[in-house]
Fatty acid desaturase domain-containing protein
Amino acid sequence: MYLINCCKLKNNLFPFSAFVIFVAAELGITAGAHRLWSHKSYKAKLPLEIILMVFNSMAFQNSVIHWARDHRLHHKYCDTDADPYNASRGFFYSHVGWLLTKKNKEVLSRGKTIDASDLYNNPVLQFQRKYAIPVFASFCFILPTLIPMYLWGETFNNSWHVNLLRYIINLNVTFLVNSAAHIWGYRPYDKSIYPAQNIFVSLVALGEGFHNYHHVFPWDYKTAELGNNNLNFTTWFINLFSKIGWAYDLKTVSNEMVRARATRTGDGKDLWGWDDKDITDKDKEYTDILNSKTD
């Protein structure tokens, strides 16, 4: 707060630009690495893929390929020793501790069983991975620092440190999905699993806190039953690009399927998303695909 207050504000553009970069970076995780590339819950045309790759690079949470591969493993073996951010080991471990320790041998062995061929074969993601150092340096640190300096005369010290604060907030907001949303909240869809409905996480993480629903139906592009855009800005973002045809084949779950799963509270089978080898034909049959190319 001190850094923001001491900035030479010109029409309040500097703190506003930091907030815009925060939202863009978060969308690179939520709409990009998470809902598009980890779960294949919708498809994106090349221009949107490039936008999301750039946004994701602003967040700098490793390459999308690495992030999505680990996230599929997280869903497949949620909160077990094979889960990279196992919440059964406590808040600190699932929040950031998993990054400070060596990967469990179960994570390493089970990780080899996760199909990530679509990620490795994606040219946009290949580009990000191949040129990781200049891409992440440019979009996460250099440009967000230089733009306020040259457009409205901000000092290097303020511009650099406020962007660094923005980056730290982006990291911790994402980490809250793995930690807080696996510990605190309601579990209306499956009471036997750690992931919970956490309104606070939904608010700060642009709709990612409806986590009990998401772990039951990981292929639903809304990651929530109601698609409440007031707490689910990511869904609003995807819907916006769906209207211009850049996002398509949006997968969602029918009311009947939600009620049936909530009634039986789950059968213990976890999926990483669409095309997981264990997803049933019946699950696919009752999934609604919006804005399909075949429509």
Observations:
- The chain has one domain: 2-290.
- Residues 2-290 form one domain.
- The CA atoms of residues 196 and 211 lie 5 Å apart.
- The chain has a mean pLDDT of 89.
